[in-house]
Amino acid sequence: MSSEDPEQRDRRSEVDMNPPKRLRTAESHTGTELEVEKSTVDVSIIMPVYNASCWLDECLQAIVDQDFTGSMELSVFDDASTDDSRKVVEGWREKLEARLISVVVSGHYSPKPRGVGFAKNKAISQSCGQYLCFQDADDIMLPQRIRLQYDACVLHQNSLIGCRVQRVPEGSTERYTHWINTLSQHQLITQVYTSHGPTVVMPTWFCSRKWYLKVGAFDEGGKGVPEDLLFFYQSLRQGGGLSRVDECLLVYRYHEKATTHSVTEETIWKLRVDFLQERVLSQWENFTIWNAGKQGRKLYRCLSPTNQKKVKAFCDVDENKIQKGFYTYEESKERPKPKIPILHYKVASAPFVICVKLDMTGGILEENLNSLQLKEGIDFYHFN
Q1: Which pLDDT score is estimated for 29?
Q2: What domain range includes position 342?
Q3: At what angle do helices 265-279 and 227-237 cross, to 10 degrees?
Q4: Which of 264, 289, 313 marks a domain boundary?
């Protein structure tokens, strides 16, 4: 029996992990091709792949069709696919290189995938672009994507740059797609605590390599780990900005095999609560939770003891909840148990954490907030 440990086997099974950079060639005045000295290219398209062969032809054709005139490379890392994904990518090498897009492909043959974070990190480490364009293998970039996001990123070197999307099949995740496409620049920052996840969604990310290196690698915990949200929050901690090109530059595919479905709501909930406490609640002396129902009470129970003490009231529009007068925190070890007042929103005071879902009240929530003349990011933050 071999004494080789699993990590050693994984390392041995990785193929072409550091292949030589294949860069664009330049033509001399005599007409002969000269190899360009090993250096960076303008943009590396970062593509982790796992069992994506049915989508790759559309995805790769869209890369060939880009109208960007700078230098590009495609960096693919195959995360133990069991289909012919690697073969499909290799079949496009000639077309890509004819378009002067250099191609780097590697991967591993371990018994199971190591996860999206691992594959992204590997694809980045073998690439050499000054800027990184993240591309999911099941999505399709529109011809102007790289050109417009590159131009935006040159101006915002320490930011994650996104874009608007077209969701397919049409009508899937309608509320989510509306949210992605209609957030204002201000809301890209203020709504980072909502259950939708990153306000600049991962399949649209474009950033400088220097910013990726500043933030640090993606979490490699594997299945069930929201590596995009973890990176997104870490980018904000480092002082990173957020921006969006307000054009539709990506066809964003919805399907049941998407890796996002492996992340549990509870995992996301905990990350959001922790980030809210770190970035917002730590700055407030006290606050009101807007929603005396299930979601508001759940938020309260998940807060640290210090932040629970800052909750001066719940507020609501439901007269039945308001008439109860108080919410008693039965799980508390304090004696007497904490009793938090339940008020009508009109007599409650800011700042608020809003635990009511957006676009689910027929505009009533938004009207109520507007009636109080509150400013998002100062007087309230959305949590749900």
Answers
A1: 34
A2: 280-382
A3: 10
A4: 264
Residues 215 and 316 in one domain: no
Q: Do 256 and 339 fall into the same domain?
A: no
Are 334 and 308 in contact by the 8 Å Cβ rule? The answer is no
In the block, tokens 């292949």 appear at: 19
Q: How far apart are CA 129 and CA 59, in angstroms?
A: 20
Beta-bridge mates of residue 107: 15, 78
| Whole-number Cα distances in Å, 22 to 32, 36, 60 | 18, 9, 18
Which tokens hold the place of 65?
A: 């069709």
Rounded Cα distance, 20 and 33, in Å: 18
What is the Cα–Cα distance from 94 to 295, expressed in whole angstroms? 54
Report DSSP letters for 20-34, one per residue: PP---EEE-TTS-EE
Amino acid identity for residue 268 in this structure:
I
Question: pLDDT at position 1, please?
Answer: 45
- How crowded is residue 189: how many other Cβ atoms within 10 Å of its Cβ? 15
Give me the residues of the chain with pLDDT under 50, please: 1-3, 6, 9-13, 15-38
Secondary structure of the chain: what % helix, strand, coil (to 5)?
A: 35, 25, 40
Phi then psi dihedrals of residue 29, to 5 deg: -65, -20
On whether both 302 and 223 belong to a single domain, the answer is no
C-alpha pair distances (Å), 32 with each of 26, 28, 93? 9, 6, 22
Whether 5 is covered by a domain: the verdict is no
pLDDT score, position 20: 40
> Which residues is 46 bridged to in the sheet?
75, 134
Q: Residue 26 has what pLDDT?
A: 34
